[in-house]
Amino acid sequence: MSVTNLLENWSQFRHKHPVGDQPHEEYKWAMSIDLDACTGCNACSVACYAENNLPVVGKEKYSHGFAHHWIRVERYWDADGRDFPDQGAQFLPMMCQQCEAAPCETVCPVGATNHTADGLNSQVYNRCIGSRYCEANCPYKVRYFNWYDYPTTDNVWPEPMNQQLNPDVTVRGKGVMEKCTFCVQRLTAAKSNARTEGRTVRDGEVQTACQQACPTNAISFGNLVDPEAMVGKQWMQQQVQLDKDKQAKDAEEAASKLRGYRILEELRAYPSVMYLERVRESAI
Amino acid sequence: MIDNFDRRDFLKVLGWGGAAVALSGCGNTSVEDGREIVTSYSEPAEYVIPSIGVYFNSTCAQCDAGCSIMGRVREGRVLKLEGNPDSSINRGKTCGLGQAGVQAHYNPDRIREPLLRSGDKGEAITWDKALELINSKLAGVKGEEVAFLTGGTSGHINVLLKNYLAALGSSNHYAYDAVSPSVVRAANKKAYGVEMPRLRLDKAKVVLSFGADFLGAWVSPVHFSQQYAQFRKGTRPEGRGVLVQVESKMTLTGANADRWLAIRPGTEGILALGLIHALGAAGMKIPGGIAQDYSLERVSKDTGISAEQITKLAALLKERTPSLVIAGSAAEGYAHGTQNAAAIALLNQVLGNVGKTVQFPAVVPFPQVLPTVGNRYALQALNDEMAQGKVKVLFNYGANPVYSAPAAMKLKENLGKVPFKVAFAHYMDETALQADLVLPLDSALEDWATSVPEYMAEEAQINIQQPLMEKLYPGTRGMGDILLALLKQRRADEYKGYEDFYSYLHSAVLQNKVALGGTGKDDDAFWTATLSKGLLKLPCDAGKISDKITPTAIALPAPFAADDAYPLQLIPAVSASLRDGRHANLPWLQESPDPLTTIVWDSWVEIHPKTAARLGIVEGDIVEVTAKNGSIKAQAYLFPGIHPDAVSVPLGNGHEAMGRYAKGVGVNVFNILDAVFDKGTGELAMHETRVKVSKTGKRVVIVKDEGSAGGQQMGRKIAARVTSDKVDLSGEV
User: Which residue of B has its CA nearest to A90?
Assistant: First the structure.
């Protein structure tokens, strides 16, 4: 593929999945996160460590930015110069946004990261050569590189902690990029069960680890193709459309009375995660 | 090695309920050296499907909230814990602390065999010898010279423990919890007639919390988080609830408030009475001249909260009822903590919330299994006894006072006066290191127990804790089994019928089948169903909460005057994951960033940017925090969510022992707390320590998750916010 070809037919490459004439067939996994419910407690993140065999890298490697939290809770303060943050902090759970036109996919020299038919941005570990181009190109900074061979690093999984490792998830070795998979191992199992019974996965049948742990139910997850799915209803009610880069809320910010948005929409990555704005009472 | 046939028999006995033991691959022995037999999966036990995870219900033991969990078990190993949706406490949800329960189980630093002190070392001995040693050491010791120190206990462990002490002729059960809300309990008891009323956030239109971190580390955080989610729903008949948090150091709950008010430390009660006064001024009927002296001007001056804000808050509380006012650890942590808590309870009464959002709790009708909740006073009492040489044999289960007692108490020194100390422990922590005999416990995922949480939601329940897998180490034992063995030394006739704690629990539950809701059910079927559910829900009659206004004389001291030698108030912060330090050896929690500062693997000193500027401190400066009883050195973090007259250091780190992930990480702020006590209850007043902060000249780069922008969004819409008048929540899904 020449660069000229790539640039000339950019929209075609980018719009592999969400466009109207090529809709998703059975599944399109998507998420919605209510920032008014999220308390920033970090349960999602720890649950992800437990489910996905994430290494604990320790203080020194953490200081180099080598942490492997596939979902992290970002904390922001208002920048208005007041003495106290008297409307609290802003929390944001950030994980791979499973973009429909993922910036990371187009730069992988070996096709290790690419799109699946059910709308996931997948990472093929044994194809990855560790160029880290994807990490550099990800606007959300949610890709994590294995700088070390954690399975053989002291005190990452010392006996018998290695017995806790989830056999459904690969333990990654040195030189491989990794990131949130929307708990693809759970999706695969659910899809397989459903197929055996001659149906598709029902809403609520499969939960991601972060969603299942979340003490305030801030995270919804499901199949956007399924008209019964909670997540689809939320997207529809908030008038956020997967294949658009201008949403109803952007068009008439003040009048819309909606709070659904996608982060860095203007980059046209078409993320599969919708956030609901945090609400703050105006009467106090 | 157990041969295959016997092992299957074993499975038939326990397997259907909890001990989900697969036939092979438990992983503790190795196939290569022939110590383990590989068994074909062609005929696995009924409930084992190779490669498929099966869930078994149990109870989380990471804190005392009593969330019901289900553990995913595959090939004989427990892999992950999820919440059990049937429990009204946590409704299928878990916190990060609960998630890390598997790391407590698989922790490489667990003690694996009984150890007897031999000089500075521990010498491995057998259980028979250990138990016999206890028996012989008790000979000739009077009952009142025996003491049992524990954390909060409940259920049948509590029963056996009390029975054992009774058999020894002792009543010295000291339940110690370094961070428990014990002053609030006492104030609640006075105001409402119950220590821990049921709080209905889901029914409240406004929640006003005085430093109660109910989303983080207070009482039952996962339950309150569930309630909070309902409270915030715009589709609720009451509309979206408003949270106002008043505290001197921002907690996780404070970070989620619609309005966070930085109050001068210790003046919480003054604000509560000031609000009552303001409500009266706004036309609300206030009985009997309560809070007459608390004029707007005075309260604003004392608390540092603007008159405008107080008026606004009073108007909101008057307009939106019912509301709910909660007193938390920040309000109770002073010498006048009882008075603060009483003033806050009075505000609830004046607002008419009692009976609406403050309700009578669900109660388990069996007094023996009810929780013995921990407090700090218990440790002081024990410490006094030890100092006078009145304790000859000390048992310690689940407490680590050598770590968490202020140095001023001289606890370690007093422990030395006890001739024989037994520690039942998971880790060689600071207290276990002082013991003469250390007995290793099964992990919570290997052990049997029942438990009754202190805070229950709509139903009374007894939680079942059961093994989710085979024991990792043959040398550990369950606490129930140990207590039973000790009881057999004393009351053989009464306990000889129970081979182990499992059979004891089995008998206990079945004997009481009718009361536990098993009327007409077959014994086996009822027992199986109980284990399968992981909890017993009990019918209970709702009592009535006392909604009388009790205008007791509340005497609040004037705010603390400036002290030049020690100008700042030290706020020891309870972190949702490390709590009182017992979880410091769980690496997931050490690497899980503190939600507000995003710092990992260390301690820090939170200081307001204004105060820092005055003292010339910048982020990463190693500062010395000096109190009357010692000092600590830690990195400074400039934190806007703290009162300029206070600094805050998180509790939980600074261990000198315990394990590889805990030892040497951060500093222990418990050490330097002043021995000041609440006048009403005698509890250690956690927030009463005054300190000075000075630079040491050293500086480090703080290891944290926050980026170089320091938590600013730089004008981009990343984490977005909208005011409630600009959004329509009624149509949301």
Answer: B719
